Amino acid sequence: MADTMLASERESGPERLRAGLWRENPILVQALGMCPVLAVSNTAINALTMSLATASVLLASAIVISSLRRIIPPQVRLACFVLIIATFVTLTDLLIEAFALELHRALGAFLSLIVVNCMILSRIEIMASRQPVSVAALDALGMGAGFAIGLVTLGSLRELLGFGTLFGSRVMPDNFEPWQVMQLPGGGFFTLAALVIGFTLLDRRMRRREVSA
Fold first, then answer.
1. In the chain, pLDDT over 90 holds for what percent of residues?
2. Does residue 144 have a pLDDT over 70?
3. C-alpha distances in angstroms, 120 versus 90, 144, 180?
4. What's the whole-model pTM score?
5. How far is it, in rounded angstroms, from Cα 21 to Cα 176?
6. What is the tens place of the pLDDT at every residue in 10-50?
7. What is the 3-state secondary structure (H, E, C) of 122-183?
8. For residues 80 and 72, what is the distance between their CA atoms, to the nearest angstrom?
9. Could you tell me how far CA 177 lies from the centroid of its own chain?
10. Rounded to whole angstroms, how far apart are CA atoms 93 and 112?
11. pLDDT tens digit string along 60-76?
């Protein structure tokens, strides 16, 4: 783990952006933030809203903390990080409540729990607190985008099989029988496991091609 952290710190901004999308995808590789991933991914719109909220908080927090990294005393850095993250979570929560009340009710307490999302805390500690704003912002953008790709893919599959719809629009034939398990947390486990297996196999195949080339 320490070697991985050191390698991440040496990479440039564009490399960190690509890493979050694929090599260090928060959901499909690092398995971070699993609580909201499994809880709110029953529909694509819930997954998209949660992923955008999480990515926005991560990006904003990374920019602010990276800008203040030389000012924040080491003794209270964790408390300052949580305070900054909580401020952006509160703003995001209020915005969603103001403009999309039904979505806010559907996501419930999981919006507030973004404060303790281990993906955000880990990126802040590993990157934003040690790197300039440009690198920290690209790292946060890559991780946020990777989180969104994994979560929306999971939510889309569960909604499609569990309800026969996609973003609320009917997609499957009228005689399609919804898979009830996909509407439950257990369906999230099964679907996520299938996605991780597929992602791992594809990644290994791509690595073999790179080696043989």
1. 63
2. yes
3. 15, 9, 32
4. 0.88
5. 34
6. 566 678 888 888 889 999 999 888 888 888 899 999 999 99
7. HHHHHHHCCCCHHHHHHHHHHHHHHHHHHHHHHHHHHHHHHHCEECCEECCCCCCCCCHHHH
8. 7
9. 31
10. 7
11. 999 999 999 999 998 99
30: which 2 tokens?
């690092």
DSSP string, 46-70: HHHHHHHHHHHHHHHHHHHHHHTTT
- From the list 199, 211, 191, the residue with the least C-alpha distance to 43 is 191
Q: How far apart are CA 45 and CA 103, in angstroms?
A: 8
**Among candidate residues 22, 80, 84, the one with its CA nearest the CA of residue 58:** 84
- Using a 10 angstrom Cβ sphere, with 0-12 exposed, 13-18 middle and 19 or more buried, the burial of residue 16 is buried
Rg (CA), the chain: 18
Q: What is the pLDDT of residue 194?
A: 94
Q: Which tokens in the block code for residue 194?
A: 């299938």
C-alpha span between 62 and 76 (Å, rounded): 17
Query: DSSP state, 213?
Result: -
**Position 183, amino acid:** Q
Q: Which residues pair with 166 in a beta bridge?
A: 169
What does the alpha-carbon distance between residue 16 and residue 143 come to, in Å, rounded to a whole number?
8
Report pLDDT digits (tens) over 85-118. 999 999 999 999 999 989 899 888 888 889 988 8
Cβ contact 159:165 at 8 Å: yes
- Residue 124 identity (one-letter amino acid): I
